[in-house]
Write a structure and sequence with these properties.
The chain has a single domain (about 10-140), classed as Electron Transport, Fmn-binding Protein, Chain A (Pnp Oxidase, Chain A, Roll). Helix content is about 30%, strand content about 40%. It has four helices and seven strands. The chain has helices spanning about 10-15, 55-60, 95-105, 105-120, and strands spanning about 20-25, 30-35, 40, 45-50, 65-70, 75-85, 125-140. α3 (about 95-105) runs antiparallel to α4.
């Protein structure tokens, strides 16, 4: 392990603090690499998207995806985890949408956005990525 590589516990802490990550996957000649709100639950990363979106179709078709969170200012840090993608119907979707919206937009705007999204798009689903392969770097460790 490189001196700049984050230990596993630090990777999860870093992902838990992130509100947005880039998710990427490729399947059947299609690929996606797009930003998406995330929330960590245990050793998985949860995200919400319309069921018929390109990202859901490609990620579920591939069965695996990368989730990458990073800082944009020095000292640079990033965590990228690749793992199995699953549609997860056991998660409380309204609670997750409200939590993500609140973390990303603040209390008032988050509440408004969550209610708008939950009432205007009945196709939204939860995707769960459970990483089993990692890349990371933390320049503060060097």
């Amino acid at each position: 392990m490189s001196a700049l590589t984050m230990p596993l516990a630090d990777r999860w802490r870093f992902l838990s603090e992130a509100t947005v990550a880039v998710v990427s996957a490729a399947h059947d000649g299609e690929s996606v690499a797009v930003p998406i709100w995330i929330e960590v639950e245990g050793e998985s990363v949860l995200m919400v998207t319309p069921r018929d979106s390109e990202k859901a179709r490609v990620m579920l078709g591939a069965g695996r995806a990368w989730v990458t969170a990073l800082t944009t200012d020095a000292p640079y840090r990033f965590v990228a985890g690749e793992g199995r993608v699953e549609l997860d119907e056991s998660v409380d979707l309204p609670a997750l949408v409200r939590s993500m919206s609140h973390r990303s937009l603040g209390a008032e705007r988050g509440a408004e956005f969550a209610e708008w999204w939950l009432t205007s798009d009945p196709s939204i689903v939860v995707l769960r990525v459970t990483p089993d392969r990692w890349r990371s770097m933390d320049e503060t460790r060097g």
